User: Fold this.
Amino acid sequence: MLETGLILRALARNKIGALLIALQIALTMAIMVNAIFMIQDRQQQMQRESGIDEANTFYLTNTIFGQNYNIQAHLQTDLHMIRNTPGVIDAVQINAVPLSSSGWSMALQHESGEDKDAVGSAIYMVDDHGINALGLTLIAGNNFKQGDVEIRKDGQSTWPAKTIITQAFAENLYPDNWQSAIGKTVYISQTQPMQIIGIVKTLQAPWNGWDGVERSMLVPFQRESKGSYYFIRTEAGRRDELMPIIEKALAQSDKERIIRRVTTTEDTRNRSYQQHNATNKILTTVVVTLTLITGFGIVGLAIFSINRRTKQIGTRRALGATKGQIMRYFMMENFIISTFGNIIGCIGAIGLNMWLVNTFNLSPIGIELIAFGVIALFIVGQIAVLYPARKAALIAPATATRTI
Amino acid sequence: MFSYYLRLAWISITRHWGLSLLMICAIGLGIGTAMTTVTVNYLMSANPIPEKSQQLYYVQLDSWDVNDPFDDGLNPPDQLTYTDSSNLMRAKKAFRQNVQAQAFGVIEPADPEMLPLIVNGRANSADFFTMFNVPFIYGGGWSNQSDESKEFVVVLSKETNDKLFGGKNSVGQSIKLEGNMFRIVGVIDHWQPKPRFYDITTGAFNESEDIFVPFHLIADEKISRSGNTNCWKPTGDGFKAFLASECIWTQFWVELKTQQDKEDYLQFLNAYVQEQQQFGRFQRPIDNRLSNVMQWLESQEVVADDAQMMMAMSFMFLLVCLLNTVGLLLAKFLGKAPEIGLRQALGASKKTLFSQYIIESACIGILGGILGLILAYLGLKGVEGLYGDYMKDLATLDINMAILAVTLALLSTILAGLYPTWRACNIQPAQQLKSQ
Assistant:
């Protein structure tokens, strides 16, 4: 285009002003692209499914303080009572809750003995109602039978003979064919054999930041312990109505224990990802304000440069330039500055990302996000310059004949 | 002259009010964001016990698996086995020493009307209270004697004492905890070190405990332990076997008065580990560490990654805002070229012009700084709301931060104003006057 040379020459006379805008665009781009990248990363983590029926489940803690308390007998009465409450689908005693950030983990290995490679997994101790109460999907093999369930005393070091694992865990143990895990024997606590009898689709570990969050195993244990969780699944839509009913029934049934922390699985998820959510909201605010500031900066500077050039613009108009040409001039000027800024911005965005990767173990940024940043900033620049450019176009040709 | 320049600045700021507002907003937003993140980082990395942080040391011994080192061999385990902490406790080689773990229990109030209470507890040694300067309202900690004679004593937090005794002096009375009667020896005042340095393993920003009881009660199974447990070797059946295992779940602090004491203690630790090696333990190279409070907090990376990342981002944000201001000030000052030319022609020196425009930049800076303070206050409220308990007490603006905010705004605006001012002062009067 003919005008490009003209604009470049005009820009060269006001290098600093143009450079400042270009730098602003570059920094905005670097921050914006990386912030969006971090937001996306967190969102992906939050979207992973826990595998349980989150909408219709809740849990509570049962803490026994009575002396000479028959834990086993009370546990069976409690479970019987909860399972027979109208509206309850199933209930189970469990040692930990997915995403609650506290739980147990153990390592499994292919061969028995010390110094063998082992893979860590979250442990959920449940009886044969576990799969139904959590709302898991069994995709291969079988559930535990009632006879598989053992009583576990506190401090016991032996493990049951059977286990059900998640698909992700099976893929980790048997990379060639995860379905072949069924019937295989693995070793827990270095030497104790366990047979894999079933595979569930998904069940997340209690720790959302752990890289093995998809690796969990169900172990057929009922704990004889003074502290445990009861995990309860209700018919759709009846959770909130049943929570106080069950809490009250348990609390009143005997006075030597405390029922606390009646919590829905949804609340647990929200709390688990509270920091992620908060960081995302802050980053979003930063991106939006930053873009606004850069946009307004462009508007402010454009208005000033137009005010300074009122006479020149008038002269151009008087010499026959159309309104469209004047507008195009300023839009083009902004486009050139944006191009310059975006080039520096791309380098800056990659540089910032490299620093983040090194310091905070983030993954490298994708090219499509950088492309998005470039396009977004071109659009912001053009929109920002639209109003000043229109103002410039409206300068009357007669201005050329007047002195200010 | 100063007040005259101030008046001129005011006139100039109000005449181009749109532009001035834009600059003030940009600086305010930049400072506000930067101050929000700086405050969070500042409070996260604060020294929770400045008067003693150099004398308190956290003990680490590398008792881990020789084939699969803890933390890939970068750091020794973050806790000690029961065996080791008991041995160190018995040796009493430091000026003060404290072994501790997290515990919990149920209190059954004497009043049958009151519901039983689940409490978070800390099981610790007598020295805990003196080592960490724990403030007491009533009574005090228990004695080393009480530890040795295995007495059932308890120290309550202010909050627990308020709940159980309505805030009255309860020292000498007893409470039923886990089925046993415990004699109350002290009530501490509200005490919430941030970070909660004495136990990082269960969360550096968690609330401090409701009750404190002697550590040996855990081994006697009079109170249940909680907190993190990490094992590399299978353990036997029962609690006795667990206590004797290689599982780490206890924390050990010592107070050492001088650098010499520290070196002596480190030597003692090395000798201890060598002795244990003869029993087939500690097969990894000797890596015993004594970290003072700040070193310990740093090695455990108490300041959250998110907080650091956002601070870096917010400083870049501030930089964008400053670039914005430089650009706008430049445009504004150059727009005044005819006026500057006229003043120079009438005899104004470069120096006076320079001070005038710097004062104008400074005014914008101060206004931006004040706006920034307000925004930082709102920002911290927002951070607290978004992050919940985790950020409680970490999102408060103190006077240091307020001064820093305004100073930062002022300095950065003056800095941003330097180039535009210099350009404005170098305008040729003749050229400007000609065009008029």
Remarks:
- Chain B has two domains: 2-45+304-435, 56-299.
- Chain B is about 50% helix and 15% strand.
- The first strand of chain B starts at residue 56 and ends at 60.
- Chain B has a mean pLDDT of 90.
